Amino acid sequence: MVSRSSVGIFSLVIIPSIYNFSQALNNPKIPDAVTVDVLPILGLTVSPLVAVLVLLQYTKYLDQNVIQDHKALRNILDLLKDTDKKMSARRQAYKGFSALLKSHSSSEELAAYIPTKKLSGREMHLKVEEGYVEHQLAADMMKRMEATKDPIVWSAHANVLAENVEHHLKEEERDLLPLIRKSVSEKKNLAMLKKYKSLRRQTQKFVTAKNAGVLK
Description:
- By secondary structure, this protein is mainly alpha-helical.
- It has helices at 4-25, 38-43, 48-58, 62-80, 87-117, 122-147, 151-183, 186-203.
- It is globular, with a radius of gyration of 20 Å.
- The two termini are 37 Å apart.
């Protein structure tokens, strides 16, 4: 039997919290701070069912899932460019980073870039083309890194790669992803999301806890 006090707490505290969190997630301008990391905190005050419902709401849109991959990339970048770490550790970090970045880039191009090129809007088309260029620059730098054994040359490429990827992620989250959210229907967004996650599962062969991203 549910007490009146329990119902009151749920109505006054939990429901408004879920509503406010949901509103934040549905905002096309998604701040970096809004991530599934808040769920353990929410889990301390709400039931597991509520936490699951919030998680489902969070993973509803393409951009929110793309940002999960972005977060995983950022978490590896610091080690990749840390020249105080041993080369063996940095090369191992690169193995996970490159596996994620290659899969993420190709999946994003097929699931998001190609469909949005069919939409109207000069700004949308420009941002998509910029995304293609930045993906290609990253791919070229990774090829050079994988071809060299010189630690200085490798480190130089790692630093430039990290800077370029950080810029790309920030710009995409600020400009392109909100444009996609505003421009496509919910049905189309869901179709793009399903394709993105399917491609991610197919194309990333080396998966760890650190580089799984949306595959978790």
